[in-house]
Amino acid sequence: MRALVVATVLLAQASCQPTGDVGYVEIKTVPTASNVVPPPLYLDTLKVEPSKKGNTILTQRVGTTRLATDGAGGQLMLCEIAVKKNRITTVTISVLERPPRCQCRNGASQNRVCVS
Amino acid sequence: MIGRLAIRRLEVGRRTHLSAALLLVVALVMPFAPARAQAPNQPDALTPVEEFSKQLDAFKKSIPDLNKKIEDSAASVDRWTDVGKARKEIEELRAIVGAALGAVSDNGAVSNLGVQALNHARTKLRALEQDTRFKPEEKQFLTDQWRRLRDETERATEELGTARREFAELLRTLQSNEDFIDELMQIRQAQKALEVIQRLTKDIREASDQLKRLIGGIKPPGA
């Protein structure tokens, strides 16, 4: 029984971690003051757990992924993030604005796509 | 009868003297025999033909080795001057850092284990507060143990966060300074190619010295 539980947990972990060619997405939320409640964020279908220090790094499959938040009529897309193999793409979310706005690290947000 | 006996004694005496004389001759001759046998082995006793033959053998033996070294060195220099190789090395470096970052990323295996361990310690602490099976001192002891575990797990996950930030920064540096790192890699490769050429030059110089010795060994009679 115990072995079955361990196997289930390992299988669940393996299914969370993307396989094949992967890259990394860094989501920074600003400001990080404790009185500011960050909005819920979704990377495709995955809910991004808010980080205490406002910085989350996720392993993602190579390709384009959508960053969204909850909107009035369902999910509201904030921007798209281009994930490249073994590269990190950083996006900063300004949570004081409504709706929150994506700021790409490279400053060149073409068609709301952040690239590494 | 007496006369015969005297003649026999005389013959025995003569044989004894002869044997002693032979022994003396052998004893005198023996020490010189090995000395004479060793004389041709001494280097100064080599004839010009033998010396030339020796040098020629050494030179002929060294030539195939030198040819192989030249071929190997040319292949090495080709490898080290390949610009694509530098790019490939950067990609490999990025893959190594990426794999490390992947392990500690927020959805990575190590982070998940840390979160699970922390949740478990917190759940146990909450459960112990409601538990009525233990005496107060036992409950206090167990609570202290679980508090210690929770605090240490929290510290460990914080350290994981530091590692995550450092790996992310390293990966960012690798990709934002790609052109400069590529140049550094190419300098490193050129240095390796130079080392190969220097080694080959030394080998060629040694072969040249051997050839000079061979030519120097050719002494026509009367020269």
What does this 3D model show about the protein?
The complex is a heterodimer of chains A (116) and B (223). Helix content of chain A is 13%, strand content 47%. Chain A has 116 residues and is mainly beta. Residues 4-15 of chain A have low confidence and may be disordered. Chain A is built from 1 helix and 9 strands. A 5-stranded mixed beta sheet of chain A has the order 3-2-5-6-9, with no helix packed on it. In chain A, strands 4-1-7-8 form a 4-stranded mixed beta sheet, with no helix packed on it. Chain B has 223 residues and is mainly α. Chain B is 86% helix and 0% strand. Chain B has 7 helices and no strands. In chain B, helix 3 packs antiparallel against helix 7 (178-216), helix 4 (83-104) packs antiparallel against helix 6 (136-176) and helix 4 (83-104) packs across helix 7 (178-216). In chain B, 9% of the residues are buried. The A-B interface holds A 9, 13, 16-17, 22-24, 26, 46, 49, 51, 53, 55-59, 86-88, 90, 116 and B 91, 94-95, 97-98, 101-102, 105-109, 112, 116, 161, 164-165, 168, 171-172, 175.
Keywords:
A: mainly beta; 4-stranded mixed sheet; 9 strands; B: mainly alpha; elongated
Count up the helices of chain B: 7
**Can you write the helix and strand succession of chain A as a string?**
HEEEEEEEEE
Taking the alpha carbons of the first and last residues of chain A, their distance comes to 45 Å
Largest sheet of chain A: 5 strands, mixed
Determine the fraction of residues in helical runs of chain A and give it as a percent range: 10-25%
Regions with little confidence, pLDDT below 50 for 5+ residues of chain A? 4-15
Proportion in β-strands of chain A: over 45%
Task: Label the overall shape of chain A.
Answer: globular
Number of β-strand runs of chain B? 0
Helix-strand makeup class of chain B: mainly alpha
- SS element count, helices of chain A: 1
Give the N-to-C terminal Cα separation of chain B. 81 Å
**Strand order within the widest beta sheet of chain A:** 3-2-5-6-9
Largest sheet of chain B: none
Q: Which regions of chain B contain 5 or more consecutive residues with pLDDT less than 50?
A: 18-40
Structural category of chain A: mainly beta
> Helical residue percent of chain B?
over 70%
The quaternary state of the protein chains shown equals heterodimer
Question: Average pLDDT across residues of chain B?
Answer: 79
Could you state the order of secondary-structure elements of chain B as H and E? Answer: HHHHHHH
Radius of gyration of chain B equals 45 Å
